[in-house]
Specification:
Layout (H helix, E strand, L loop, with lengths): L1 H41 L2 H36 L8 H5 L4 H47 L29
Helix pairs in contact: 1-2, 1-4
């Protein structure tokens, strides 16, 4: 029985290490979203490119941590005799000694405080990018459709005449 408890505690230690990486990932994501908004506003394309490359590189490392956490979750569920979908930090706390329970509770509280902040930052960034796209579309529409009435007018010779208030860009090749 004691070896099973030791095995569970070892898995909990591995889980805590994964959760620590999750916490760092969320904190880095918060900083990156803030930087992303700043770079979009400043129109710093070079720094934006570097940031996006860093995000791509970091996503692979995070994916491996996600898989490891899911594997540990499954192993803990098997060891405690429950379904992996039911294995949450709250349900795990009920099976832990006080020292491990405190560590899991601290990680859970840190995640609980970071996740709403991440949602807020994500929403702010999505709204900024949405407004940029809307503004760019309106700007492009106004540049390419100035004077476009949908009516073709011909002069007395049967030739179309360019209107003074026509579009700024001639789209004929």
């Amino acid at each position: 029985m004691r070896t099973a408890a030791n095995g569970i505690e070892a898995k909990v230690d591995e889980l805590l290490a994964c959760l620590e990486l999750d916490i760092r990932h969320i904190e880095e994501s918060l900083l990156r979203l803030n930087e992303l908004r700043s770079m979009v506003i400043k129109r710093d394309d070079a720094a934006l490119g570097r940031l996006l490359e860093g995000i791509r590189a970091g996503s692979d490392a995070y994916r491996s941590n996600e898989l490891k956490r899911q594997s540990i979750r499954q192993e803990l569920a098997d060891a405690l005799g429950c379904d992996a979908k039911q294995m949450t930090l709250s349900s795990l706390e009920a099976h832990l000694p006080t020292v491990k329970w405190n560590q899991v509770a601290q990680a859970k509280e840190k995640l609980r405080s970071l996740v709403p902040a991440l949602r807020k930052e994500h929403l702010s960034t999505a709204l900024l990018l949405s407004e940029c796209a809307r503004f760019n579309n309106a700007l492009l529409r106004s540049v390419f459709e100035i004077g476009k009435t949908g009516v073709v007018c011909y002069n007395s010779n049967g030739v179309t005449k360019r209107q003074i208030d026509a579009a700024l860009v001639d789209m004929q090749f």
